[in-house]
Design goal:
Elements: H1 17-40, H2 44-58, H3 83-92, E1 108-114, E2 128-134, H4 140-159, E3 164-169, H5 171-175, H6 192-202, E4 204-208, E5 210-211, H7 224-233, E6 242-243, H8 253-269, H9 271-287, H10 294-303, H11 314-328, H12 332-346, H13 361-373, H14 377-384, H15 391-419, H16 424-441, E7 463-468, E8 479-482, E9 496-500, H17 503-512, E10 521-525, H18 535-544, E11 563-570, H19 582-587, E12 607-613, E13 618-623, H20 627-638, E14 649-654, H21 660-679, E15 688-693, E16 696-703, E17 706-712, H22 715-722, E18 732-734, H23 743-748, E19 756-763, E20 766-772, E21 778-784, H24 788-809, E22 822-829, E23 835-839, H25 843-847, E24 854-860, E25 866-872, E26 875-878, H26 879-882, H27 885-896, E27 910-912, H28 917-920, H29 928-948
Parallel strand pairs: 2-3, 5-6, 7-10, 11-14, 15-18, 19-22, 24-27
Antiparallel strand pairs: 1-2, 1-4, 7-8, 8-9, 11-12, 12-13, 15-16, 16-17, 19-20, 20-21, 22-23, 24-25, 25-26
Helix pairs in contact: 2-3, 6-10, 8-9, 8-15, 8-16, 9-11, 9-12, 9-15, 11-12, 15-16, 27-29
């Protein structure tokens, strides 16, 4: 039925009070129809709750739900319970007797219910958001008691099967823009105007004062305050009859951005509902500032006399507004998605037969829409079977939803930049939102896509087959996953779910997306060899990652992601060819799985590393070559910003075999040592962690907080590397199983110190020397052994001479005066064939002895080459004059001063490299290891000359 239009724009000419009465009746009529639709959707006990709700806030009575005290604010403006309410309240409490209260004690201005309740979008699971509007100026105690009363009434509602949320509202404070005590659903005052727009078009009036907004024509929204003031000041409307939350015109640009950010956050987990709200924001922002809000359109429709309750349905109005916008832009694919979102929100599958019940008004409305959309029967049946969709259907749908969410994000960011109203708060929120979207939707190498953001309730498959293909069958991928039982039989291409180079990635992807679960019959079929067992791996997956994942805390996106848990899957693809003798393992628990047997075989063939991080990303990397080294590097990269307390939980799974436990225990032990080295805070930041693998050696070291791995083919190459100069004092840590019975293992167990440390190990007539200099560079060599003092006294004199020279030329030594301790240790073998270091306090003995001084001085010749002069006592020998003969001449001179012409070794006791520093080391300056290296070279030539003269 068409009603006459009401024109109240020209308030200065006076208003027809009859028109105001008609407007009130129209709004109350629409409100009553919505309330009836709400009640029709509820159970009888839930209807009772809504019916008596105003009375519960009108009085304080110990026999009624929500009673706190007699002083709790109560009394609803203009409310008097009717006979039906008083009859229904007896079902709640038979002892209750109503007594009228005075107007002066009425502290509750109004009750409104808002949201999807009573609309086409209402479902059995819809909650009730109720605005409890109280008198301004209530004290802190009164507000606390009112909040407690609302909480108890919510609890009573829960007993009736209703989820009810109360929000205490002060209309004056809200109208002035102060923060409101709204829930996270509304994000508070950041969306003040948009929240008000939603309230006016969805609110169902329950009791108390009616909105003043009803009586301000839509055409006057831009002058809302003036119009409202005139209505009240000229007594067209009594102030005691209305509540004023303000107008909806001139929504600030920041609100569109804040609301968009909020709905995108929610859309990551539940996209269907968010797509509608995001597109409505896009419509509003695109038409701002002149485009009407839906609340204004709702009001104008009532003023125009169109009172069809269906056409005024808030959700239908949202859809129709978006539809018009997308049709004008010819964006039909987006419109098709919007229609599905709306259809799913209504949740009345049209192909599902009714079972004797009356067809609901929502279903009739939806049927008329679907006819207009021209959806064919097959399309409708497919959509109605959404709860049965599996991975292929969900993946296709997800991509459409993701595209829409990312489109909304780009629109939001562009709109924000165009407003030129830069807000640090919004800048930060947009950055965090971008990170959330990246974590949820961005594709990167090895990243597991979460394919089911609330699209289908169950993706589990009855049977899965992971099958490896030969290179001739597929040039791009090695493994394929089918939703079909294989048993090495041909598989249907239509059952193909996913392809990958590595089966571990497919297994983890199917597990994370709940396609593979405990009910699934599953086979893993490699190209060569037997099927791979899955139950133990599935158990490890559950240990590593419990599904469903908990939501990520917002604060996690304020920083880079860090690993929460790590899974290592070892030897999934292939096993070492050599079987292990179990008896050998039992007899020798110290067998090293990294260096097994006489050939020092590495028993780890392949590793897949899966990282679950603080952004709920899961990233999988699989390695078949240098598997442990590559997995180790990835683990350290992922953990680079972790402290020892925040290191990820590590789960290690090795494919079932005779050596499964051996490998798992070795890896656990290895990672414990590794993390203790780098994350305990007890070692230098540039510490080298050295271990052996397959008879070779490797070290891990951090540079600029990034891990690097070096490898060496053998022990001599390792020693050569350890002799290199360092930028600063550098610690060396050996893995406990590496060189376990070697002197170097004992040496590196000593605490790091700036002392120059000399270690010697007597081997019959030879002695092995190990020297760590002031930066912990290692010099090692072997020489003839006569006695301890003959070995150490010239070495001590040499080191002391070098230190004295360094202190004269090195600015860094001004604070220490170049005084570094020199410590001597003898390496002694213990009962377990290992070694330990015995400190030798022999400095005084050495210092007190006199010996023949041999000094070398370096210089640069005309060709830029280093040459040496050698001084024996006061006798000088110059390489520039004598060339290589210098060593023969020096040898003859030394022999001439020895009684009996003994040819025992001669040692350099002092070396001056001051003129050759730039030629030797330009970057960090020379250190003791430089001197020791040149000392060895000169001594080798000199002692060779002693044998031939």
């Amino acid at each position: 039925m068409q009603h006459h239009k009401i024109h109240n724009e020209h308030i200065d000419q006076g208003l027809d009070r009859k028109s105001l009465t008609v407007l009130k009746k129209r709004f109350l009529s629409i409100n009553q129809q919505r309330l009836e639709r709400t009640l029709d959707a509820l159970l009888e006990r839930q209807q009772l709750f809504l019916d008596v709700l105003p009375l519960l806030f009108h009085v304080n009575h110990p026999a009624l739900p929500g009673y706190i005290s007699n002083d709790t604010p109560a009394g609803i403006s203009g409310f008097t319970p009717d006979k039906q309410i008083l009859k229904n309240i007896q079902r709640v409490s038979r002892s209750f007797r109503y007594q009228a209260i005075t107007k002066s004690r009425r502290n509750i201005h109004a009750l409104f219910m808002m949201g999807s309740i009573g609309t086409v979008g209402h479902t059995s699971g819809s909650d009730l958001d109720i605005w409890l509007c109280h008198r301004p100026g209530l004290g802190e105690k009164a507000l606390f008691e009112l909040q407690q009363k609302a909480k108890q009434i919510s609890d009573w509602a829960a007993d009736q099967g209703l989820e009810v949320h109360f929000f205490l509202m002060d209309a004056e404070r809200f109208r002035s823009g102060e923060s409101s005590p709204l829930s996270s659903e509304s994000s508070g005052s950041a969306q003040h105007k948009l929240l008000l727009d939603e309230f006016y078009r969805t609110a169902v009036y329950l009791a108390g004062r009616i909105p003043l907004w009803w009586f301000v024509p839509a055409a006057c929204e831009k002058h809302y305050a003036d119009y409202a003031h005139t209505l009240l000041s000229k007594r067209f409307i009594r102030a005691a009859d209305v509540i004023d939350f303000g107008g909806t015109a001139d929504t600030p640009a920041d609100e569109f951005v804040s609301a968009g950010i909020w709905h995108l956050y929610k859309g990551i987990e539940s996209p269907y509902k968010s797509v509608l709200k995001l597109l409505l924001l896009e419509v509003y922002a695109s038409e701002a500032p002149d485009g009407p809000t839906l609340a204004q359109s709702f009001k104008q429709t009532i003023y125009d006399g169109h009172l069809d309750i269906n056409q005024l349905d808030p959700y239908l109005m949202v859809y129709l507004r978006i539809e018009r916008y997308l049709l004008q832009a010819s964006q039909l694919r987006r419109l098709d998605l919007v229609r599905r979102c709306f259809y799913f929100k209504v949740n009345k599958p049209l192909t599902r037969a009714l079972t004797g019940q009356k067809k609901s008004w929502q279903r009739r409305l939806l049927e008329s829409l679907v006819i207009n959309w021209r959806w064919h029967k097959d399309q409708l049946q497919f959509i109605d079977r959404r709860r049965f969709w599996k991975a292929p259907q969900v993946i296709a749908e997800r991509q459409l939803l993701v595209n829409e969410l990312l489109n909304s994000y780009r629109f939001l960011a562009d709109f924000y930049r165009q407003t030129h109203n830069i807000s640090p708060r919004l800048n930060k929120e947009l950055v965090i939102l971008g990170r959330k979207l990246y974590a949820a939707f961005e594709r990167t190498a090895g990243k597991v896509e979460w394919i089911n953001p609330s699209i289908s309730p169950d993706l589990g498959e009855e049977a899965l087959t992971f099958r490896e293909l030969s290179q001739t069958e597929d040039s791009n991928h090695s493994w394929k996953l089918y939703a079909q039982a294989g048993e090495h039989k041909p598989l249907d291409p239509y059952c193909l779910l996913k392809s990958s180079r590595h089966v571990a990635e497919l297994i983890i992807w199917s597990y994370c997306n709940s396609i593979l679960d405990s009910r699934t019959y599953c086979t893993i079929e490699p190209l060569n060899g037997p099927t791979i067992p899955l139950p133990a791996l599935l158990h490890a997956l559950r240990q590593w990652l419990t599904l469903p994942l908990a939501n990520v805390e917002h604060r996690n996106f304020s920083q880079k992601p860090f690993p929460v848990s790590v899974l290592l899957v070892v030897n999934l693809y292939q096993q070492p060819a050599e079987e292990i003798n179990l008896t050998t393992i039992e007899r020798n628990p110290h067998i090293d799985a990294f260096n097994y047997g006489p050939d020092k075989k590495n028993l780890i063939e392949d590793i897949s590393l899966a990282v679950h991080n603080s952004w709920n990303e899961v990233i999988v990397h699989s390695y078949e070559k240098r598997s442990l080294l590559n997995a180790l590097l990835e683990y350290l990269r992922a953990s680079s910003n972790c402290s020892h307390a925040s290191l990820p939980r590590l789960i290690i799974h090795c494919r079932e075999s005779h050596y499964q436990n051996l490998i798992q225990q070795r890896l656990h032990r290895f990672f414990q040592q590794l993390t203790a080295c780098f994350y305990s805070g007890l070692q230098q930041a540039n510490t080298q962690f050295i271990f052996s693998l397959g008879g070779e050696f490797a070290s891990v070291q951090f540079h600029n907080k990034q891990p690097n791995i070096q490898t060496w083919k053998n022990y001599p190459q390792l020693l050569q590397s350890l002799a290199k100069p360092y930028d600063s004092l550098t610690s060396i840590v050996l893995d406990h199983d590496t060189l376990a019975n070697h002197p170097l293992h004992a040496i590196t167990q000593l605490p790091l110190t700036e002392a120059v440390q000399v270690f010697y190990l007597q081997q019959h007539d030879k002695v092995d020397i190990y020297i760590f200099d002031e930066r912990n560079s290692l010099t090692s060599y072997r020489q003839t052994f006569e006695n301890r003092l003959a070995l150490l006294r010239p070495l001590h004199r040499f080191i002391r001479s070098v230190l004295e020279r360094q202190s004269l030329t090195n600015n860094d030594s001004l604070e220490t005066f170049g005084v570094y301790p020199v410590e001597f240790y003898e390496l002694q073998q213990d009962d377990n064939r290992g070694y330990h270091c015995q400190r030798q306090p022999i400095t005084k003995d050495i210092s007190s002895l006199s010996f023949f001084n041999v000094q070398a001085i370096a210089d640069i010749d005309d060709h830029g080459e280093i040459s040496y002069s050698i001084y024996c006592g006061q006798q000088a020998f110059h390489a520039l004059e004598q060339g290589e003969d210098i060593f023969v001449r020096v040898a003859k001179y030394i022999l001439s001063h020895r009684q009996g012409k003994e040819r025992y070794p001669c040692y350099i006791t002092d070396l001056d490299l001051s003129q050759a520093q730039m030629a030797l080391e330009q970057k960090n300056g020379i250190q003791i290891s430089h001197y020791l290296k040149i000392k060895q070279q000169l001594e080798a030539k000199l002692n060779h000359a002693l044998t031939i003269v």
